[in-house]
Amino acid sequence: MSRRFRGLVVAAPVAVAVTTLAAALARAVGVDFEIPDGGEVIPLSGFAVVTGFFSVVGVVIAAVLLRWSARPAERFLWTAVALTALSLVPPFLTGANAATVVALVGLHLVAAAVMIPGVARALSPSRQDGVDEVPRGGIHAVGVQRRRGVGPGDVVEEDAVDAGDQPAGLAGRVACAEPGENRGDAFA
Questions:
Q1: Where are the alpha helices (DSSP H) in the chain?
Q2: 109 close to 133: Cβ distance less than 8 angstroms
Q3: pLDDT band at 134; cut points 50, 70, 90
Q4: Which of 86, 115, 161, 162 is the residue whose CA sits 20 to 30 A from 93?
Q5: Average pLDDT over residues 144-166
Q6: Is the pTM of this model over 0.70?
Q7: Does residue 4 contact residue 128 with C-beta atoms inside 8 Å?
Q8: CA 31/CA 25 separation, integer angstroms
Q9: What is the rounded radius of gyration, in angstroms, for the C-alpha atoms of the chain?
Q10: With 50 as the cut, is the pLDDT of residue 69 above it?
Q11: Are 120 and 7 in contact (CB under 8 A)?
């Protein structure tokens, strides 16, 4: 199982467990989670199911971005933050008491605090194939500074690269990789 996939799969159950535990703690201190429209109380299992469902939605969004985006972590972060902000509105529309509304908003934020960093970290280029850091713009080469006009697959000649910055054997030839490519084979 790849690191990325493992990171995506682990985030959802952790979010479910943490959110359900937080709901149990809120209930223990007196939050009733009663919704006045039907007079029903939200059960703890309801928090687990809803958190699990929307966590899986987040993982699916992450998988789509991983497949079709050049910067999946950045795109996921913006998407998840926007969706989290939208999710904070419904608790205010329930007509529940203030303690329930505050607890529901807090639980949305707890789930987001677990899912968003976990999934974004799993999508990060630094998590793949042992790459420690990828400069912005997607160009990655050992000991070479990013240069304008150099793109994926381009070869930078010796005079354009400071050979003193490169490990032995790499002077004169630098392959650039697209974001998401296996950078371990970038140098032949």
A1: 3-28, 44-68, 72-87, 90-93, 98-123
A2: no
A3: very low
A4: 115
A5: 48
A6: no
A7: yes
A8: 9
A9: 23
A10: yes
A11: no
CA distance 77 to 119: 9
Cβ-contact 129, 184 below 8 angstroms: yes
Nearest-5° angle of CA 70, CA 79, CA 2? Answer: 55
Range with lowest mean pLDDT among 24-38, 41-55, 81-95, 138-152: 138-152
pLDDT of the residue at 126: 62
Those residues with Cβ within 8 angstroms of residue 65's Cβ, 6 or more apart along the chain or in another chain: 72, 75, 76, 79, 123
What is the C-alpha separation between 65 and 80, in angstroms, rounded?
A: 12
pLDDT band of residue 1 (cuts 50, 70, 90) is: low
What lies within 8 Å, CB to CB, of 167 at 6+ separation is: 142, 143
Cα–chain center distance at 141: 25
Quick one: residue 166, left, alpha or beta (phi over 0 = left, psi -120 to 50 = alpha)?
beta
Look at residue 143 and give its three-state secondary structure.
coil
3-state secondary structure of 125: helix
Percent of the chain residues past pLDDT 90, beyond the cut: 51
Q: In a 3-state reduction of DSSP, which class is residue 18? A: helix
